[in-house]
């Protein structure tokens, strides 16, 4: 595989009792960068991410990660250990712990049993947590109970927790859903920043969000790749207007 490529889905098919939710999908991701995955409801976006992270098994095709690892042969926890993080729409944080403690826990998962048994946190680890807190816009909120954060802040905390495990590929489902406009913008900026060092894939329905933060957009329709390009190219494409934007317009009329 090309040195700059981290993931390649080759002709991937996922079936549910004979129904092909994803059929012959192709996707290539570079080691760094933010990719938005869009398409009408039922296009197969979530199923594709599920196949990459091992939640569902493809019935056909290959999902090649890094230097030739076929993810279709790996179990979900093994895929996570390889450095693929998946974030679902609802934040899964520990609400009764502080923001810092949440990050600490996430860090220890990475460090293994020995670190988990150690009660004292090293100053280097403390520094890492502080840096991460600043990075996710929660500097100054480290000692607050995570359950008391706003919806947007909880999402950022979860992203921060995933980053503590230093993934090389992050998969996110509608990370800005339910956020205020300001939180949405901050989320876009955060994703752009973290995508400078790793590959990030975002399944998204909010077209304004995509327009503001996407460089390359992949459009799926009926389980297949419809097109790939900049948001301008995607919006100017007649097939996309027909299957996706057209449907949206009808839906909002
Ligand atoms: N576990 C499952 N069993 C059966 N059918 C499923 C399952 N999961 C998804 N599907 C079907 O597969 C198709 C693709 O679903 P998927 O959730 O991947 O689409 P999507 O593009 O993410 O849609 P949305 O934007 O609405 O979330 C849909 O028709 C869905 O009903």
Write up this protein.
- By secondary structure, the protein is α/β, with parallel strands linked by helices.
- It folds into two domains: 1-83 and 168-253, P-loop containing nucleotide triphosphate hydrolases (Rossmann fold); 91-166, no CATH class.
- 40% of the residues lie in helices and 25% in strands.
- It is built from ten helices and ten strands.
- It has helices spanning 45-53, 76-81, 99-111, 113-117, 123-135, 151-164, 181-194, 207-213, 231-236, 238-252, and strands at residues 5-16, 19-30, 33-38, 60-65, 69-70, 84-87, 169-173, 199-203, 216-221, 224-229.
- A six-stranded mixed sheet has the order 6-7-8-3-9-10, with helices on both faces. It has a four-stranded antiparallel sheet with strand order 2-1-4-5, with helices on one face.
- Helix 3 (99-111) crosses helix 5 (123-135) and helix 3 packs parallel to helix 6.
- The protein is globular, with a radius of gyration of 19 Å.
- The N and C termini lie far apart (46 Å).
- The mean pLDDT is 90.
- Bound molecules: adenosine-5'-triphosphate (ATP).
- Residues 16, 19, 21, 39, 41-47 line the site of adenosine-5'-triphosphate.
